[in-house]
Recover the amino acids of this structure.
């Protein structure tokens, strides 16, 4: 009846999540079995960092991305993109044309992750001289 009249039903108050549910949703990188460790490995691998930073400028085809991330093998780039896609950070769009046309872009969550790893990469570049002098 509410739908027929165009009325919206009052939302039920959300149940408060328990402490365990909150911990499972957030993750704990110090816990050996936490899935966040695997995602962190994908995001913070040298190729993962470079792919995320490269895609900050916008959508790229595989070949463009491979040129931009100089030194990465085709196999490693494909694997890195698959990881980042499965983690919800990169979106892959395949067009049904000949030859195949595939584009990659950051998801909204990928934009967030990229900004964090880009900040770390910037810090490393800015402090490279100091770090090399220390070692």
């Amino acid at each position: 009846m509410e739908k027929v009249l165009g009325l919206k039903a009052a939302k039920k108050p959300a149940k408060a999540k328990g402490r365990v549910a909150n911990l499972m949703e957030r993750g704990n990188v110090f816990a050996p079995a936490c899935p966040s460790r695997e995602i962190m490995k994908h995001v913070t691998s040298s190729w993962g960092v470079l792919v995320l930073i490269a895609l900050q400028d916008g959508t790229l085809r595989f070949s463009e991305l491979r040129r931009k991330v100089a030194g990465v093998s085709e196999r490693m780039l494909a694997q890195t993109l698959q990881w980042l896609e499965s983690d919800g950070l990169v979106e892959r769009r395949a067009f049904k044309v000949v030859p195949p046309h595939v584009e990659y872009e950051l998801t909204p969550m990928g934009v967030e992750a990229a900004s964090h790893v880009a900040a770390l990469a910037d810090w490393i570049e800015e402090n490279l001289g100091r770090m090399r002098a220390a070692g």
Observations:
- The longest strand covers residues 90-95.
- The first helix runs from residue 2 to 5.
